[in-house]
């Protein structure tokens, strides 16, 4: 049994991870201030193995919190991840990815704990190379509506680098590419949740630009396994590793697949492309395969079918 801290525990990934770790018999301490996380995601976690600290990960009071003694592992997932949420709370997003990351690194150092920091494929910005490999430095705009997320995640990586090189903190960085499942809230604002909800309601699917931009979608169980393997693997200390599905798809093709799977009467409408929206997303996962023996197992159609099935049930309720 381990004592494991998860920040952002009420979010999409955090709640999935908490359920996994509790089911394995671990004690989980969760931190969340519910800016984008939802209490319903964690309400069924057993109180014998799960405790919640309702605060922001950037709070300095956490460093002396009585529940955060003798921690074995830290998953720092806290941060709004959807443009809808991080653009609504840009300063809070910057703070949790910078001061919050520093706090978690301090706790890791204090407890001699392992830590995984979840960065993002947005660290690559609008990439000039594809697929994106970890040593690519990116093409990121510091002066735009996405910068609060992209650049604060990059600075969080810098904190991890410094604590690893200066203090030998056992930290690893996961650059997560688009993750999905039925667990994505229907008001999340990300493309799969948008398309599935629109299709099931026979509404027009809103495609931005001409739909030729690409993304790579990884089912949540694959992403969670990748994070757990990253935590486990000591050879990954001080490393940045892409966690994502290398199968790239155009957004217009994704829309047509969802229309076909839902058998909807929905049409596709086209809207102006948001500022700084990246044209491509495709991870190179060579490093993950080598260091973690990890690669995604759930193909897109299978994952979409499962997602659509649960969304349908929720609509009926």
From TrEMBL:
Its EC number is 4.1.1.35. SUPFAM superfamilies: NAD(P)-binding Rossmann-fold domains (SSF51735). The keyword Transmembrane applies. One of its GO terms (molecular function) is GDP-mannose 4,6-dehydratase activity. Pfam families: GDP_Man_Dehyd. Pathway: Nucleotide-sugar biosynthesis; UDP-alpha-D-xylose biosynthesis; UDP-alpha-D-xylose from UDP-alpha-D-glucuronate: step 1/1. It is found in: Golgi apparatus, Golgi stack membrane. It comes from the Bacteria. Residues 5-307 form the NAD(P)-binding domain. Keywords: Decarboxylase, Golgi apparatus, Lyase, Membrane, NAD, Signal-anchor, Transmembrane, Transmembrane helix. Its cofactor is NAD(+). InterPro entries: NAD(P)-bd_dom, NAD(P)-bd_dom_sf, UXS-like. It is a single-pass type II membrane protein. Belongs to the NAD(P)-dependent epimerase/dehydratase family. UDP-glucuronic acid decarboxylase subfamily. PANTHER family: UDP-GLUCURONIC ACID DECARBOXYLASE 1 (PTHR43078:SF6), UDP-GLUCURONIC ACID DECARBOXYLASE-RELATED (PTHR43078). This is UDP-glucuronate decarboxylase. It comes from Terrilactibacillus laevilacticus.
């Amino acid at each position: 049994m381990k004592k494991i801290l998860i920040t952002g525990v009420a979010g999409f990934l955090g709640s999935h991870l908490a359920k996994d770790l509790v089911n394995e018999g671990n004690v989980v301490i969760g931190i969340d201030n519910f800016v984008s996380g939802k209490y319903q995601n964690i309400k069924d976690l057993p109180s014998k193995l799960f405790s919640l600290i309702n605060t922001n990960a950037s709070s300095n009071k956490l460093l002396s919190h009585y529940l955060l003694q003798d921690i074995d592992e830290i998953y720092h997932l806290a941060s709004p991840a959807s443009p809808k949420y991080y653009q609504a709370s840009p300063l809070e997003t910057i703070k949790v990815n910078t001061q919050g990351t520093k706090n978690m690194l301090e706790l890791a150092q204090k407890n001699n704990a392992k830590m995984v920091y979840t960065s993002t494929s947005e660290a690559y910005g609008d990439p000039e190379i594809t697929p994106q490999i970890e040593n690519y430095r990116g093409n990121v705009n510091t002066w735009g509506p996405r910068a609060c997320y992209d650049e604060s995640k990059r600075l969080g990586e810098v904190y991890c680098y410094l604590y690893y090189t200066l203090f030998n903190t056992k930290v690893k960085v996961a650059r997560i590419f688009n993750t999905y499942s039925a667990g994505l809230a229907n008001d999340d604002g990300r493309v799969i949740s948008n398309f599935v909800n629109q299709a099931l309601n026979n509404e027009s699917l809103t495609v931005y630009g001409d739909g030729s931009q690409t993304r790579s979608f990884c089912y949540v169980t694959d992403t969670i396994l990748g994070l757990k393997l990253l935590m486990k693997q000591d050879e990954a200390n001080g490393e940045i590793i892409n966690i994502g599905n290398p199968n790239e798809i155009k957004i217009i093709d994704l829309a047509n697949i969802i229309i076909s799977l839902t058998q909807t009467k929905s049409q596709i409408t086209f809207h102006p492309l948001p500022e700084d929206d990246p044209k491509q997303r495709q991870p190179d996962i060579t490093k993950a395969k080598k260091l973690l023996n990890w690669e995604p197992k759930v193909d897109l159609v299978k994952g979409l079918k499962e997602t659509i099935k649960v969304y349908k049930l929720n609509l009926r309720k």
